[in-house]
Queue: 2 jobs
Job 1
Amino acid sequence: MRLIFLGPPGVGKGTQAKQICEHYKIIHLSTGDILRNEIADNSLIGNEVKKYIDNGNLVPDKVILRIIENRLKNNDVHEGYLLDGFPRTINQAEGFQKIIMDQNHYLNGVISLTANEEELIKRLIKRGKDSGRSDESPEIIRHRQKVYWKRTAPLLKYYNEKKMLKKVDGLGNITDITLRILETID
Ligand code: ADP
């Protein structure tokens, strides 16, 4: 099972990704988590990406694609994976397509989680108070939303045209949303 989760910051991709990965026994790959770990480790990549993340901008496609390509060579993704936070640009989606074609793999589907912008900003500001993340001040949160609509939202159309997109309402309690996602996948 290979899935992509798409949706604006705050929509609950991370929370739902955990549930879905447990259900299918697949690996959760969050590029945000991978990047934050690199920063915490003070690695070369970490130093390169920190300024983008702190300002709420996207890390360059080249860097992300290299990370994903390497990560997908690991044996633990054999049973499948859920990508959370990747791809985030059309260029990344095209790069990803090449990577999986080279591996003779295919994607099962793209889940788009939706919610209105007011609700998202409210959730993020609440989360920002105790997440300890460097990019969760109200100003950076608003900027990340803008970046999403400009650079990532075009992927909704992109995957819809490929007949891969499935929309799921991201409002409600966590279990209900998980059930909605599972129904959509089945
Ligand atoms: P959220 O879903 O709340 O936006 P993430 O943890 O997915 O948070 O991402 C945090 C930050 O990490 C982004 O604002 C961006 O700077 C960087 N990032 C994560 N994934 C990508 C990606 N695929 N391409 C470029 N930048 C990324």
Job 2
Amino acid sequence: MNVSVHSDADALSRAAAEEFVELARASIRSRGRFTVVLSGGSTPRRMYEFLAALPLRDRVEWSRVEVFWGDERGVPPDHPDSNFHMASSALLEHVPIPPQRIHRMRAETSDRAAAARDYQLEIAQAFGVDMAGIPPSFDLVLLGMGNDGHTASLFPNDEALLEGRRWAVSVEAPQRPPPLRITLTAPILNHAREIRLLVAGQDKAATLRAVLQGPHEPRRTPVQLIKPENGRMIWLVDEAAASTLDKAVVA
Ligand code: 6PG
């Protein structure tokens, strides 16, 4: 198991930002661009702020970065609950990424199923692949985990967990406002070259233990669906979240 423990949320965010920079540089060197899926939630905000500030900001060739989202809430893009808004205010407004390389999910529209299909097409076009074919591989997928075990907007017992073909779907998550959302699905997330799961805080400790050391029950703890087929996945956690893990897991 690949679990990297950091003293607190700040240290974890800094480590994640530094890794983003290294992966961006390596991807741009070998493939000419860096495709990254951003996550919502509060944990990544600090990471984005580190990326937007010196010294890290100047170490990335932002014109070659292509940005996507793992999920979006059904609110307008300037709403405080919008994942796009969070990433924009913490990072994207401060770095020179060409606007055509910023691919937001239009989850505020009334026909979210159509918006999810459009997003699949937009991903396919950005990668120059067939939207009915095998999902492309993002260079980096950033994810968080809720204390109910959800990741992106893949919630316990939701039918989106069973999706085997579509790359993006609309979901209703009544237990977690705002309920109407669009999410990427396991088939495309698991095609990534690199996945980093950021988990901070004591309130996540019990769920983290269940996910990493308990039985495989992805309907109950959807983050267990995340297993890259050929890529690498690392859990970046803080000491509070890791406090109940067995020593062998974090060694
Ligand atoms: C969302 C997220 C979600 C998030 C987790 C963890 O839009 O709600 O993408 O999956 O990553 O809920 O969020 P925190 O980092 O805020 O705990």
